[in-house]
Specification:
alpha/beta, TIM Barrel, eight-stranded parallel β-barrel, two-stranded antiparallel sheet, about 40% helix
Length: about 290
C-alpha cells in the first residue's frame, strides 16, 4: 500500500517556515503541516504567502494543513462573534492561498462558569461557523483533540461527539500521542466513518504516568510505549487512506541536525508501516 507521509513544521524547532519546507524535502516527506505560529513568524519578518507557495512548488512538497497552535477561541458576547469571524476568515484565506487541504483547530478553553450543555453548544456553533467559512475557500476544518494538560477535549470519543454536532460536521485529527495520553480506546473507533478522519499522526510517547505527559515527551515512532502497529491496523481497518504525519516538538530533538532528524523520522514511520504490512502478509508497501 502506498502511503503519504507529512512532517509537522514544529519538528524543526526554531527553524523558519521556509527552512522547515526544505527539511521536509530532505527527509523525503510528501507533505508538510504548517504550524500557524511559524506562518505568523514568517509574515511578521516581512515574508509573504507567495514565498511559501514558491518554496512548496520548488521542493515539490504538498501543503497538507495549516495547523493552529492555540485553542480555538469562543465568543463571549456579540462583539466577539464578528471579531472571531474575521480571524477565522483570515486563517482560511491563508490556508487556501498556500494550497492547504485542511485547517486544523485545537479544543477551546473552558468558558467561565458555563454549564456543560451551553459550552458544548457554543463549541459546536463556533466549529460550524469556521467549517462554513473554510468550505467557501475550498478547504476543510479538522478538530485535533488534546489528551494532555487541562484540555477540554481529551479523548477521541469526545472529539467525535463535538465534531459531529457541528453543522456541517467537521473532520478529525487522530494523533497517536494524544490518543495514548488521554486514555482513548480502540472501542472509540467503532462505527467511525473513515472519511471523517483528515490526518493521522504517528507519534510515540515516553513511558510516564499519563497525567505527567506533555508534548515534550513525544518520541519517534517505535521509540516509545505506544503499540504503533496496532493503532495503524485499527485506523486502516476502518478504511482510512489519508496522510500520516509526525509532530515532534521535543527539545532534545532540536539538538539534532534538522535534515538528519527528518530522515530518521521518515524512516521510523516507514518502518512501522512496513512491519504492520509484513505481519499481515501485505508486501506491496513501497
Amino acid at each position: 500500500m502506498k502511503r503519504r507521509f507529512a512532517m509537522h513544521s514544529a519538528t524543526t524547532g526554531a527553524s523558519t517556515l521556509l527552512d522547515a519546507i526544505d527539511v521536509a524535502r530532505a527527509g523525503d516527506f510528501d507533505a508538510i503541516e504548517i504550524g500557524s505560529d511559524k506562518l505568523a513568524e514568517h509574515l511578521a519578518a516581512g515574508g509573504t504567502l507567495g514565498e511559501v507557495r514558491q518554496s512548496l512548488g520548488r521542493t515539490g512538497i504538498e501543503a497538507l494543513a495549516l495547523s493552529t497552535t492555540e485553542p480555538i477561541a469562543l465568543p463571549r458576547g456579540t462583539d466577539d462573534v464578528a471579531a472571531l469571524a474575521r480571524a477565522h476568515e483570515s486563517l482560511c484565506e491563508s490556508a487556501a492561498d498556500i494550497g492547504c487541504s485542511f485547517l486544523v483547530v485545537r479544543p477551546p478553553r473552558p468558558m467561565d462558569q458555563a454549564m456543560p450543555r451551553i459550552w458544548h453548544d457554543t463549541v459546536a456553533r463556533t466549529l460550524a461557523s469556521v467549517s462554513r467559512t473554510a468550505a467557501d475557500h475550498g478547504i476543510r476544518v479538522a478538530l485535533e483533540f488534546v489528551g494532555t494538560g487541562s484540555s477540554t477535549v481529551r479523548t477521541f470519543a469526545q472529539a467525535r461527539e463535538i465534531a459531529s454536532a457541528a453543522a456541517p460536521p467537521v473532520g478529525l485529527v487522530l494523533d497517536a500521542f494524544h490518543f495514548h495520553a488521554g486514555a482513548s480506546t480502540y472501542a472509540m473507533l467503532d462505527g467511525l466513518d473513515a472519511a471523517s478522519v483528515c490526518i493521522v499522526r504517528l507519534n510515540d510517547s515516553e513511558n510516564l504516568p499519563l497525567e505527567n505527559l506533555s508534548d515534550a515527551n513525544r518520541t519517534l515512532p517505535g521509540d516509545g510505549v505506544i503499540a504503533m502497529r496496532e493503532l495503524l491496523r485499527q485506523v486502516e481497518s476502518v478504511g482510512y487512506r489519508g496522510a500520516y504525519s509526525i509532530q515532534l516538538p521535543r527539545p532534545e530533538y532540536y539538538d539534532w541536525e534538522p535534515r538528519r532528524l527528518a530522515r530518521v523520522a521518515h524512516e521510523s514511520i516507514e518502518a512501522v508501516c512496513a512491519e504492520k504490512d509484513e505481519q499481515e502478509g501485505l508486501f506491496d508497501y513501497d
